[in-house]
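Lecture 7 notes: from sequence to structure.

We start with a single chain of 200 residues. Read the sequence below before looking at the structure.
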Amino acid sequence: MKLKAILVLSLATLVSLGSFAATAEVKVGTDYTVLSGKEATAKPHVYEFFSYTCPHCYSLESVLNKWKANEKPEELKFEQVPVFMSRAPHLTYGFYAAEALGVKDKVHSTIFHQWHAEKNVVRSKEDLIPIFAEAGVSAEDFEKAYTSFGVESKVQFAKKLARDFKVITFPMVIVNKKYKVESYNNLNEMLGSFALENTK
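Now the structure, written as tokens:
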């Protein structure tokens, strides 16, 4: 099935507020669904499946950055997973190469900003080289990381996660490997007390 971007309720509203909407009790079927056949993790763990090509993922990024800086529970593990697309494999490899080189935060935000704010589409692996250079990484070090076994392993694991969670739209937020966020209206609660209380 073809991957596509989707906006669940109003991300634009969340971004305009500069934070999450007011929290309320979350409801199954409205705020989240329970994934069939999945067992909750022993510790709170949130996945965000995203694509650099997706404008809604770009909108959600600023909201999540504020959450990570101000609201994220210390004990919760938050993990972003780039959705692999055959027409743009360099984006997934680039994400994990940046992680391996210790420049993920800078490279990640630059790719998003260039693509959506500057309308400068990162079309190829070669387009990543100047972005990494801005982060202080030489072309040689970039190439070594990009083609490394470690990065390849993470790319394959990202593919497996996307298959396991049947990711066909994004952004997709999964809480504790069992609950899929369906509405961003109570995202603060979903990623806060709900995630902390609904573990194994």
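Strands lie at 4-5, 32-34, 45-50, 77-82, 169-170, 172-175, 179-181. Keep this in mind for problem set 3.
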